[in-house]
Amino acid sequence: MTNSFKDKLGQGGYGGVYKGKLQDGCFVAVKVLKESKGDGEEFINEVASISRTSHVNIVTLKGFCFEGSNRALIYEFLHNGSLEKFIYKGNASNSDHQLGWETLYKIAVGIARGLEYLHRGCNTRILHFDIKPHNILLDENFCPKISDFGLAKICPREKSIISMVGARGTIGYIAPEVFSRSFGGVSHKSDVYSYGMMVLEMVGGRKNIDVSVDCTSEIYFPHWIYKRLELDEELGLQDLLNEADQEGVRKMILVSLWCIQTDPSNRPPMSRVVEMLEGSLDSLQIPPKPFLSSPPRSPLDSSTVMVSLQYDSEHLPSRQPMSLGGNELCEMCN
């Protein structure tokens, strides 16, 4: 299928992704997982959750390989890869592929629709728990598709709060209640938080925490952009050429700031997020400032700074993204 794993598309903590081709000529992306630890919960999660879905903004699972400890997932192939390649300024890989504001706005709406479907459109509610630019794939028309359901949890639609041991997700996008239940129960609103943080990165063209900036007040982008909105200042974003761009970006910012409210009950459900993005800008109000304090100025690397984020001045435990583990490759994919 992959011509002996000749064409590698990417590498992550879970293993590698390779381009393949089925006998009918259809191209696929083969995600080969490292040797799984424990009972392979993440693999089962991914197959069980994504096989229940059918939506234009959710990646399609074509099949899977389960052969002893060798495991692989076969997805539809998406020509433009992941969103993170296109949004961060200064990233060498996107120097010739900077997306326009109209495209970014459409991507934000598409991801919101995909999450709304996961939360409300399936027979069982699916909580993703790892929404971030790396897990949003783009087709040839830059239509976004949510991928990587390894950390997902399936729960009854009528159940609003779920029980969960420990934290799951990627630092920088994890909702505060996932770190500490003192902020509230874990629910679909945790995905809403991750979505808001991701869209702010799309707007800023940078990680939300950036130790490379000169001014300390600009390290934490959500606070910097909130202050600009409060003072009714120019947003200071590049290439806002026309009124439509400005309106779309302002909606993305306001909606994102609502999504990252510290109290989960203050965040809108994804159905409301879609309405806000597609509705009138005049109907959107500036939300309360999220109670997040930016990290101290230091020469630490970005991952360390993310860990040092404080919620209500209380240091909370953190955890790196969970991933599967194996180096052996299954015969079918080879």
Automatic annotation (TrEMBL):
A cellular-component GO term for this protein: membrane
GO molecular-function terms, A-Z: ATP binding; protein serine/threonine kinase activity
Cell compartments where the protein resides: Membrane
InterPro entries linked to this entry: Kinase-like_dom_sf (IPR011009), LRK10/LRL21-25-like (IPR045874), Prot_kinase_dom (IPR000719), Protein_kinase_ATP_BS (IPR017441), Ser/Thr_kinase_AS (IPR008271)
Segments forming domain Protein kinase: 3-292
Annotated positions binding ATP: K31
Membrane topology: Single-pass type I membrane protein
Key words, A-Z: ATP-binding, Glycoprotein, Kinase, Membrane, Nucleotide-binding, Serine/threonine-protein kinase, Signal, Transferase, Transmembrane, Transmembrane helix
Coiled-coil portions: none
SUPFAM superfamilies attached to this UniProt entry: Protein kinase-like (PK-like)
PANTHER family: RUST RESISTANCE KINASE LR10-RELATED
Family the entry assigns: Belongs to the protein kinase superfamily.
Protein name (Swiss-Prot/TrEMBL): Protein kinase domain-containing protein
